[in-house]
Write a structure and sequence with these properties.
Blueprint: H1 2-17, H2 22-29, H3 31-37, H4 40-51, H5 55-69
Helix pairs in contact: 1-3, 1-5, 4-5
Length: about 70
């Protein structure tokens, strides 16, 4: 669902922008949503960045995927 994907992505970008540790829990509860947005390699890198609190890097990957998908 494109609406759910946009909403989850916007919330995640908010967490990442604020360096909010809630990003890790949010990803855990929404992995399928982000898996739908990113290819397997991109998702693995995104998840690793989030788990390592490399939020700027995770945000860059997410924003690039959003741009590529036209969301």
């Amino acid at each position: 669902d494109a609406t759910a994907l946009r909403e989850a992505t916007a919330r995640m970008i908010g967490f990442l922008s604020e360096f909010d540790p809630a990003a890790t829990d949010f990803l855990g509860h929404n992995e399928l949503v982000f898996h739908a947005l990113l290819d397997a390699e991109g998702f693995a890198r995104f998840k690793q960045h989030v788990e390592e609190y490399a939020f700027a890097e995770a945000r860059t990957l997410l924003e690039q995927a959003v741009k590529e998908r036209g969301l």
